[in-house]
Design a protein that fits this description.
Number of helices: 11
Strand order of the largest sheet: 2-1-3-4-5
CATH class: Alpha Beta
Strand content: 5-15%
Structural class: alpha/beta
Distance between the termini: 72 Å
Shape: globular
Largest sheet: 5 strands, parallel
Order of helices and strands: HEHHEHHHEHHEHEHEEH
Number of domains: 1
CATH topology: Rossmann fold
CATH superfamily: SGNH hydrolase
């Protein structure tokens, strides 16, 4: 009798282990990708590299994906505005021209929003969506105003309101049209300089991003804070701190170096670890 009981127990244990093994394997196999959305910062744009091959560009999404051991699907486009993200006829800051001439990390013929919705609808195990967008809206305004401060100041409130409205539409489409209920992280912008006027201008740009993200229960990662301490240690300059790409002609580009990129990636990873919302710009 004892022998039969022992055999029965061993058989039951074996069946339990066999049942558990496929479940664990399935869980690992279905660890979903990271879908990265946004502009040149997400793209990893560097004006000193060849544009012919997108693999030359490594943005913060690639670093986040590596750290989380996720597949990276990066649909970002240099020069994308919140408007051109949604509409193929809205003003952009060079995204459409770039797409005609050079490859993106991911090829698509639609708007970036249409691609995101399609991807999320057909890939139900996406682990994380990241986005940074809005700065090019301001750059378009600056070009339209020929950099005249009075013109820029007059147009800025409308541009900031448009950024929020467009982001709320984008987030609504991601949450509802694409039925994505997973983690959504917005990265705010770093400041090129942390003197009071420059920092205040960056915080003004970040405010509609913060408000729209909160409205759709997203997670905020502060690019502003990611650069701040390091820049202040270098006198307030992100360029002097080695966070921005140095140009051969002198000065710095607006895009991050690998050091700056990695700080942005860490801001996202830290925000995911906290699982909450940052109040800072």
């Amino acid at each position: 009798m004892r022998g039969r009981i022992l055999v029965a127990l061993l058989l039951a244990l074996t069946l339990m282990l066999l049942a558990a093994a496929p479940a664990a394997a399935e869980s690992e196999d279905h660890k979903g990708p990271l879908l990265a959305l946004g502009d040149s910062v997400a793209f990893g744009y560097n004006p000193l590299l060849s544009f012919a091959n997108a693999i030359n560009f490594v943005g913060y999404p690639e670093i986040v994906a590596r750290r989380l051991e996720l597949k990276d699907v990066n649909s970002s486009c240099p020069g994308e505005t919140t408007g051109s993200f949604i509409s193929s006829t809205a003003a952009d800051n060079g995204c459409r021209d770039y797409r005609v001439a050079y490859p993106l990390h991911v090829g698509y013929s639609t708007t970036q929003l249409a691609f995101a919705i399609s991807y999320l609808r057909t890939h139900h195990h996406v682990s994380l969506v990241t986005i940074d967008i809005g700065a090019n809206d301001v750059f378009v305004l600056q070009k339209q105003c020929n950099m005249v401060p009075t013109c820029i100041n007059a147009g800025l409130p409308t541009v900031l309101a448009t950024i929020r409205a467009n982001l709320e539409f984008i987030f609504d489409q991601i949450r509802n049209a694409a039925d994505y209920r997973g983690r959504l992280v917005s990265l705010t912008y770093y400041s090129l300089s942390y003197d009071q006027p420059s920092a205040a201008a960056t915080e003004a740009l970040n405010q509609p991003i913060i408000e729209a993200t909160r409205a759709f229960h997203g997670i905020l990662a502060s690019g502003f804070d990611a650069f701040k301490t390091v820049a202040l240690a270098a006198g307030g300059s992100s360029c002097a701190a080695g966070l921005l790409i140095v140009l051969p002609t002198g000065g710095c580009d607006v895009h991050p170096t690998p050091k700056g990129r990695d700080l942005l990636a860490q801001a996202i990873l830290s925000s995911l670890h906290r699982g909450g919302v940052q109040d800072q710009g």
